[in-house]
Specification:
Length: about 400
């Protein structure tokens, strides 16, 4: 039986996607080496209710270079991170000589905005990539102590789409305890399990996301490390996220938003077996309906291509068994993915220009969390008679 990485209690499996490749392992067409696979299964802790993967991908297998996340590639995300930085500047970074730390560089939108306001800033980024001040290491107790000694205490430690990736998350909280000023805050935003259940956005579950947070599980995790959950904020980005704020126990009281979200999770029975089993059944239905739709369109002679070689698409393609016979290519704007094959299913990845040369009859939108932005950008596709296929929250054509 698996044990919880937060509290060591038993973890109960509720969904198994089978053997999956790494979501970032795009292969060259001539590559013959056997692909690494692991069992992508998710369970819930019977004590602290933390939802988590049952099998961790070894750190040495995970990519830190080659497929970086570029938030500025999306107007929505660029604006989101700029607003986040401005909020920190007005609410938390107001003392004399404040110090801002980010775990994970993304592509520097938050750090650049903070720096341009004259605030000291530093990013922990193991890949070493980044134009700003970068500490080339993982964030843990040793690296936190090194920075604390050199720079002094941090007023804010911030992470976006990063903490859910860290299986040994206790080391992050221990590092935060070392680096934060007495009244400092640890702020992180990650996919919200409540939204995953609500939308049946099962493709949010893949190798790089080890945890799927709720307010209840984050509060339990925080308390084990001497912190309290003091604020939560719903975010519309990436299919629904929550921004969590942690402070040392007793330094700040929880906001009304924390109380309200905890009550909502309880009333929804968010982590109850009935809810989880219903989610699993709906995911299986989506798989069946999506494959049947693609097969029917193929039989009828329609051309379907994928849009967005996202990490999420790896879960969908491999779980559903969708290969080049149903989706002959995927278009993506990331140069490092172009000319390669999707993990496991080996669908060729083409640059965006291929989308309109010629337009397909249907486009399977893997980047559904950017649907509004993508569809506005690709209006000519609709005008040419093209239709979008989506599978969140269910299989439908628009």
């Amino acid at each position: 039986m698996s044990r919880c990485r937060v509290c060591s209690a038993a973890v109960h499996e509720f969904l198994d996607f089978g053997r999956q490749p790494l979501s970032s392992a795009f292969r060259s067409p001539g590559e013959t080496e056997k692909e690494f696979r692991f069992r992508l299964a998710v369970g819930i802790c019977g004590s602290c209710t933390m939802v988590q993967l049952l099998e961790e991908v070894p750190q040495g297998r995970r990519a830190h270079k080659g497929y970086p996340y570029h938030s500025s590639g999306s107007t929505v995300m660029h604006e989101h991170f700029e607003r986040t930085a401005r909020r920190f500047l007005s609410a938390e970074l107001t003392a004399a000589d404040p110090f801002f730390v980010e775990i994970g560089y993304n592509d520097g939108v938050v750090l650049d905005t903070v720096r341009d306001a004259g605030v000291r800033q530093l990013a922990f980024e193991p890949s070493g990539e980044g134009a700003g001040r970068v500490h080339c290491s993982f964030f843990d107790t040793a690296s936190a102590q090194e920075v604390r000694t050199a720079e002094g205490p941090a007023d804010i430690i911030y992470a976006a789409n990063t903490l859910c990736d860290v299986a040994d998350i206790a080391t992050v909280l221990e590092g935060a305890d070392i680096l934060l000023a007495p009244d400092g805050v640890l702020v992180f935003e990650d996919p919200y399990f409540g939204e995953i259940i609500e939308r049946t956005s099962f493709d949010q579950i893949y190798d790089e996301h080890f945890y799927y947070f709720t307010a209840r599980s984050v509060r339990a995790m925080a308390r084990r490390s001497g912190f309290d959950l003091v604020d939560v904020e719903r975010l519309p980005v990436h299919g629904g996220q929550i921004r969590y704020s942690l402070a040392r126990t007793g330094r700040r009281g929880p906001t009304a938003a924390v109380t309200e979200l905890l009550a909502e999770e309880e009333s929804r029975g968010l982590t109850e077996p009935e809810t989880l089993n219903g989610f699993t059944a709906t995911v299986a239905t989506i798989r069946t309906e999506l494959v049947e739709l693609l097969r029917r369109l193929t039989r009828e002679g329609h051309r379907v291509v994928g849009y967005g070689a996202t990490a999420k698409s790896s879960t969908v393609l491999n779980y559903c068994g969708i290969g080049p016979d149903l989706v002959p290519l995927v278009c993506d704007s990331t140069p490092s993915k172009q000319g390669r094959l999707t993990p496991g299913t080996h669908i060729p990845v083409h640059p965006p220009q291929a989308f309109s040369d010629p337009y397909p009859d249907y486009a399977l939108l893997f980047a559904w969390n950017h649907a509004e932005e993508v569809m506005a950008k690709e209006q000519a596709f609709r005008e040419a008679g093209g239709r979008w296929i989506l599978y969140v929250p269910d299989v439908h054509i628009v």
